[in-house]
Amino acid sequence: MLKNKNVQLIDILPIVALIVLLLVFGITSGGALFSSFNIQSVIRDSIPVILGGLGVIFVIATGGCDLSIGAVAAVAATVGAYYGSIYGAWMTVLLVLLIGLASGTFLGLITSRFHVSSFMASLALLMGLRGFLNVCNVKWEQVYLPESLHFMNGFGPALLITAVLTVIVWYVFEKTKFGYYCKGMGENENTMIAIGVDTVKVRHIAFIISGVMAAVMGLLLISATGGSSSTLGNFMEMKVQMGVFLGGVLVSGGMRSKIYKLIFGSLSITVIVNGLTISGASSSVTELAEGIILMLLLYITILLSKNKGFKRKKSGASNEEPAGEIDSQIA
């Protein structure tokens, strides 16, 4: 009974954290945080973070990471917008999705087939794509999104797109074997291999989903700015990771990876940035706060991961026991 209560307390932590942040910044801002304009602003600013998180959570659940999503978003949006201005809006959407698919496929191939660290591979891709983005912006000078796609910057359309994608991703992540395999790999990849799961394929698909969702995030980002620049999508990978971890998803992934945690975490990080801004904090102070929060989150999740491993050893559970349990749940 006590164990169930502990699980419930851990699972509602992201909700409690968001409520506490709203109260703290509501007081420090003199109530300005709760104005209708500001609430809409918080939700609007959370949308790209949520979209990026909807993809990267598959990778994180397996125990990996994807630091390339900000650069993928920027390059996909820039190339799509440039050729879309020539051939039409349909070309923008097509190229954005294809670039996201290609980057995810490439990163998934490197990490799953050649066993390169996801951290190093995604960091290298980030640097390469940022360089490519600078070349594109210098060569093309000015890149603007086709006017027919400017509607995506509207609060309603952006919210609707996010809601639809959230429902689809939630179903795949929470209700299908693929989502369960991703989380199972974060718990114990050897166990998943033992029950016949193709972990190479699962990891590859996880990175593909991350790349496609990053590209969709880029489309929303460029619709907000109207055009491309060398700073498009800058540090979005960090903000998305912070949103996921602030929601209570462990760095090591596993079964506690949940879509609702990502959503509440994304709202929380946006409330922090927005709250500091309307409370009079400078941009440098806001960035400092984000850095401190990220370090604290990493420290806490590392402690939780170690504690999880300690409990497993203490329980004396062998590899065969979890395998049987996971296999029965899948069946």
Automatic annotation (TrEMBL):
An annotated GO cellular component: plasma membrane
Keyword vocabulary terms for this entry: Cell inner membrane, Cell membrane, Membrane, Transmembrane, Transmembrane helix, Transport
Location relative to the cell: Cell membrane
Stretch list, region Disordered: 312-331
InterPro entries per the UniProt record, alphabetical: ABC_transp_permease (IPR001851)
Top-rank taxon: Bacteria
Membrane topology, from the record: Multi-pass membrane protein
GO MF term set: transmembrane transporter activity
Coiled coil: none
Segments crossing the lipid bilayer: 12-37, 49-82, 88-109, 116-135, 155-173, 205-226, 238-255, 262-282, 288-305
Transport among keywords: yes
Keyword tRNA processing listed: no
Name under which the protein is recorded: Autoinducer 2 import system permease protein LsrD
Organism: Hornefia porci
